Amino acid sequence: MRRPSTAARRSRGIVFRLRAALPLLLLTACVARTAVTVVDEPVAVPQAVVVAPALEGSAAAELVVPEPVVPESVAPEPVVPESLPADDPTALHPPSQACHYTTYQWSMKRKTGVNRRTISKTFGELTGDEVDPNDARCSVCEENQVWLRPADHGWPNIKPVRVCDAYASRLGKALEEMAVGGAFTLIDLEGYRPGRTRGAVVDGLRTQMSNHGYGTAVDINARHNGLYSGCNISPVTLEGIRRCRLAVGGPWDPTARPSTSVVRGGIPYRVMTQSVGWKWGGEIAGGTRDLMHFSLTGF
Ligand SMILES: [Zn+2]
After folding, report:
1. Based on the domain organization, do 107 and 250 belong to the same domain?
2. Residue 150, preceding bond cis, omega within 30 degrees?
3. Cα 61 to ligand 1 centre (Å)
4. Where is the domain boundary, 22, 40, 64?
């Protein structure tokens, strides 16, 4: 039998080496694919996966390090359903349905709610700012609100709050997204609260319904994300906020409390702006920086 030529032996040798290297190449491609997926959802993947030893020092490793994630506590594994029902775009309540709510006005002098009264009417009788000017599906009526139970969405120790029924499923999903990864910790949540706590002041009392009055606003971790006034700074920084006046809630210090603070680009910010479509009170026009607050308009 003829011995194969030198060229043929060399080419067979290359094929053999390629075959031997194939599993390694496939594995590398597989890890790289996983890593690239991580770029979209850095929060959803345990930190250990983000810095895979095989990728250290490579371009891919640089791509996938999203931001420093320092979990202070390990959140419970949330149950995330495959798909959630879409919000009902026709969730308008019939004009004949009964509506009631208990409202109050914020006293600038006494720093508390006054003039508490309960109003009963029908949805058809709602007037002026009793209906959300930015979304007619939501109103001041308790019958327009549903209970959002954080315990059902990855946060067993947070008490239920009421929110407008048209946004309930989106907000539930948002809470689940905040729980994934354990880098963010929810310590308190506020929703529906039908008080006139903003706008013009007449006789020392606020006259305009808050977005909380329609269930189209939530406050996240008020104790660590206060409302500041005299604070026309953009973006909000630790240096800048020191010159503002803390009016409601606790002081904001994302350096000292990274896992409970709301910051631009952080987990609650991304979830609330992208998954719910609401705006952050830390980025509104004027001199108020309401760092705990997310709503349809940011106000
Ligand atoms: Zn608020």
Report:
1. yes
2. no
3. 39
4. 64
Q: How far is the CA of 298 from the centre of ligand 1 (A)?
A: 9
| pLDDT tens readout for residues 56-78 | 333 333 344 344 443 333 333 33
Residue 78 lies in a domain: no
Beta strands in the chain (DSSP E): 98-107, 112-122, 145-148, 161-164, 189-190, 195-202, 205-209, 217-220, 227-229, 245-248, 279-280, 289-290, 293-295
C-alpha 162 to ligand 1 mean position (Å): 13
Per DSSP, 3 falls in state P
Same domain? 60 vs 110:
no
Q: Which domain holds residue 31?
A: 6-64
Q: Would the pTM of this model clear 0.85, i.e. be above it?
A: no
pLDDT by residue (tens digit) across 79-126? 323 333 345 555 679 999 999 999 999 999 998 999 999 999 999 999
Name the DSSP class of 14. Answer: H
